[in-house]
Protein 1
Amino acid sequence: QVQLVESGGGLVQAGGSLRLSCAASGSIFSINAMGWYRQAPGKQRELVATILRGGSTNYADSVKGRFTISRDNAKNTVYLQMNSLKAEDTAVYYCNALLTYGSLYWGQGTQVTVSS
């Protein structure tokens, strides 16, 4: 099993920045990929960014050039640096981890609110 704890959400003005953190514990050596997703009120959860074990990254078109996913292996933590935030980035942001044998784990989510 893997436990994921997100932090770093909050209220920010449009154009501002936030950095989200996702600390993983448990069977971390079984993690193949980690990602950030978000869910706005009344909408489905959507992919924001992913990072694979080998370091490859992938981004939703809506955040390319503004968001950066990275990781610190020593701290077992994945980050999401969010710059040039827009009102439409307002959502609950969730971290997930995909394990080698296919299990998927989610964090509890952290609220990001961007005021226009």
Note: Residues 6 and 22 are 4 Å apart (CA to CA).
Protein 2
Amino acid sequence: VQLVESGGGLVQFGGPLRLSCAASGIIFSIHNMGWYRQAPGKQREPVARITTTGSTNYADSVKGRFTISRDNAKNTVYLQMNSLKPEDTAVYYCNADRLAMAYWGTGTLVTVSS
């Protein structure tokens, strides 16, 4: 199983960025997909999740600014991030889960400059 994140980088305060996560080795459509992040010195926290049926939920800190979506034909999940803030700076990880199984990507760094 491989989850490969891309799209991270340096962005200015208030700017947008879109992360992608390409999955292989799993039946993508039957896995719930999510994004987590870990800021320096902090624990990993959930950011957004999309179920197999397309239902979404978000951390309060990103509601209204971030949008998670998935393309089952491309085995890819996206995280559109708008109105970025310095406190969004973190390594962002892609997650796939189904029943008791969970898989993780290696992360992509997002840095928001003030």
Note: The CA atoms of residues 35 and 94 lie 5 Å apart.
Protein 3
Amino acid sequence: QVQLVESGGGLVQAGGSLRLSCAASGIIFRDNTMTWYRQAPGKQRELVATITRNSVTSYASSVKGRFTISRDNTKNTAYLQMNSLKPEKTGVYYCNSHDIWSRDYWGQGTQVTVSS
């Protein structure tokens, strides 16, 4: 049974930081590409950051230089360090795992609210 469990969300003031975690089980974590998405109220889900099995990272242009995605294969966990948060980054953050057979798995999401 595959499980992705996000944590670390919460309420933070603009300019603050949060670190999200995505703990995975039931998958071969080290072989999977991990991606964080955000869904703002009333909007479509959008990609925030990706890290491949080889730890190659990529980011949405709006978060480059402020967000950092990482992974710890010994803990089957992916992270998203978010600094200098802005109110427009409010939303539900979802963790996605994409395996070598092109199957996608999703977590339940964690709410991030940035107050102005």
Note: The longest strand covers residues 18-25.
